[in-house]
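Support request, please re-run this one:
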Amino acid sequence: MDRIIFFDTDSFNSAVYEFENDLTGIYDFENISSLPSMDDIGSDPYWYGWNKPVSPFVDEVTEKIVNLSKKYGKKTHMWLQGFKVPKEREEELFEGYKIFERSGIDTVLFWGVYACKHISSIACEDSDKTWETILRIVNENKGK
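Re-run finished. Output below.
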């Protein structure tokens, strides 16, 4: 993995793949990914929000991003959810990260800083534990 960052501060263009349906309003991610001006594609497969298990949900979304990136010669990024994480499910973040790592994702990002403890509407049920989990993921994977 090239880098792990909390906020996307690079100036690259990116396409986000979640689902091609009425909820996202985008129906053709292949076309978006093929744009010459698009140099990095990614997604935010927030399984908590979609009420899905980590696997196969994150695997499927990640595979689609990787396949599109190979087809069109793009870099990849994926986001891990650091907001509204249910209590006692913080360790699932490791599982999501491992899927990204196995798939060869270039950049992993987390939303949001301090597990959104400062934003009551999207704070995690245990923001301190979620933030500690995020920091463990970062510290255990530096330089990979």
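Residues 54-72 form the longest helix (19 residues). The radius of gyration is 15 Å.
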